[in-house]
Description:
globular, four-stranded mixed β-sheet, alpha/beta, seven-stranded parallel β-sheet, 17% strand, UDP-galactose 4-epimerase, domain 1, Rossmann fold, 2 domains
Amino acid sequence: MSILVAGGAGYIxxxxxxxxxxxxxxxxxxxxxxxxxxAAVPDSVPLLEVDLLDRAATQAALLEHTPEAVFHFAASCYxxxxxxxxxxxxxxxFVATLNLLDGMxxxxxxxxxxxxxxxxxxxxxxxxxxEDMPKEPVNPYGRTKLFCEQALADYEVAHGLKSxxxxxxxxxxxxxxxxxxxxxEPETHLIPLVLQVALGQREDIKIFGNDYDTPDGTCIxxxxxxxxxxxxxxxxxxxxxxxxxxxxxxxxxNEEGHSVRQVIDTARKITGHEIxxxxxxxxxxxxxxxxxxxxxxxxxxxxxxxxxxxxxxLETAWxxxxxxxxxxxxxxxxxx
Length: 336
């Protein structure tokens, strides 16, 4: 039987598709390509261009392929935009997920691996963040993801749908082959922005705040390599297959934060470029530190990150950006 990957043409989804194929799984990608990239999907994998907000088309796709399991990465994910346009996020993240779940119920698919977020916690009172801390999201993006997790509890009771939700921190890096990577428009993530400076596509990188209560005064975040994320999703599916879980949520992080300055300094070392940095005012709502504990995922799923160090993350990201300076739009070769 197949595994359907919703959002499989996007950043995390495409890397998970590759990891599933490497394990001999049969994969079908469902993506409307508004933010995903056709070039990120191998020619050997069926690509269903379906908008999850189209309830009938979503159900038809599930009924046609009757997958064993669904991985769900399709979502809008810009925190600032979620504040200014909350309706978009409730539709794209929550309503679309309900359509997908209802399609699964109709097709008899009962295993679901969900891409959630650490934004479900809001601003935690202490660090590292652990799974049983209060869920108090401070923006619509985090709320929509939490609503989805809550819906999964009800779908388990009503329909026997078994699920794993993975709450991760800052996804980063690229496939070591250099043919899969991060390509967003607009780009808001620190590492690709820093590497765009190294490529001469930006004049400088902005450091928002230098007076935080951290060792070097800049914000600290928990970065996790994209392949380690993909591995965790597959381990989640294995736990569902083996009947070890019916519904669970796990944090995914490296448990070691890196500051903005550390990221920039490491990028300078990896790329050999100066990468000018300009210090400016703090951004509203930026907490000084966000670091999560992944002890539960290690214990229950057997998850062991392989690319935990910042050098590995930046080396793979630099390889991708150097080969694809215009992202998938400048790529003339389709990779399998």
